[in-house]
From TrEMBL:
SUPFAM superfamilies: MFS general substrate transporter. It comes from Stella humosa. The keyword Transmembrane helix applies. The lineage of its organism: Bacteria, Pseudomonadati, Pseudomonadota, Alphaproteobacteria, Rhodospirillales. This is Putative MFS family arabinose efflux permease. The chain crosses the membrane at residues 47-65, 77-96, 102-128, 135-157, 163-188, 209-231, 243-262, 282-304, 361-381. PROSITE patterns: MFS. InterPro entries: MFS, MFS_dom, MFS_trans_sf. Residues 10-386 form the Major facilitator superfamily (MFS) profile domain. It comes from the Bacteria. GO terms for molecular function: transmembrane transporter activity.
Amino acid sequence: MAWKGGRATVITALGTTQTLSWASSYYLPAVLADPIAESLGLSRDWFFGAFSAALLLSGLVGPIAGHAIDRRGGRSILAITNIVFAAGLLLLAMASNLAGLALAWAVLGLAMGFGLYEAAFATVAGLYGRNARGAITGITLIAGFASTVGWPATAFFAEVYGWRGACVIWAGLHLLLALPLNLLLVPPAPPPPAAGSAAPPAGIGAPRAMYILAGVFAACWFVSTAMAAHLPRLLQALGTTPTLAIAAAAMIGPAQVAARLIEYGLLQRFSPLTSARLAAGLHPIGAGILMIVGGPAAAVFAILHGAGNGLLTIARGTLPLALFGPAGYGLRTGLIAAPARILQGASPLLFGLVLDRAGPLWALTLTASLTGLSLVALLFLQPPRPASEGAAAP
């Protein structure tokens, strides 16, 4: 039977399943780390060590996942990933010691490598070719609420059913909600173009551009993860009251969504490279204001950081597509994302050490320097010249 669904249906389905996948994996430790560690008689360090290892594993398998999506399309890969997510969550619910915890996070690491943003981006790149930018933005716009939905949902599940029950509920949602959405609402991808059947886009295969993007995304995601773990404490160290620090940190989510709405509308007329440069520049501007003004500028910093983070999430998908085209997109984005996934695991620990031992100004200087250097690196890339489509848009 021919596929009847439209692009909006695909975006909604993938945005929903991505929200569930992020909420039940990446955002799970923020709520369940303490009860799980206490129940298993382990320190938080052991729990987050297992989580960091899962992030490392997800980065290592990301290129394999992308290559598989390039060859077969994303529908079946994402559907299988929902089963793997469910298996990892059930193993976590049954864990009784460190070995069980490590096994559960290893399975969840595989699921994250095959089932988070890069996989969804590769799926729509295979479906829509160079016209996938709007779909990528739409997916991130919906999934931008993963923490907003996931944290209170996990807290509610854990309060009512315990942390083991919370894991079981998330596993059930993967099987009963996400799996049918991926199977029924995501169409099969058209066959990949034959080698040499289309003119390669400008810059395809250029290793320099690949290295630049990998470095930029690694640096920016180091900063993003560090802020997610330590922002309230950083703001308090700079003179903000605990209440205002929490209020300012809560503005990151709305700022991300607002920036993605701007990308979906106003910035669509510009190259994704313009959006990426803007995104990389917002954090150092906010950091400079915060270092000069101090605590009263906490909200300004949070808004600028959140907006930049929201745009960079989209750039992870749209910039490689614009520079290299849809051919081999999944493998390419997996390779580009691998350093970022690996650094994410070390970011909270490393940034925390700088914050504790060198102080908040040096910690903020570190993040501003990393994002500022990312902006400089992006200036060495040129917007792609018009090129023939690598895949026809339906």
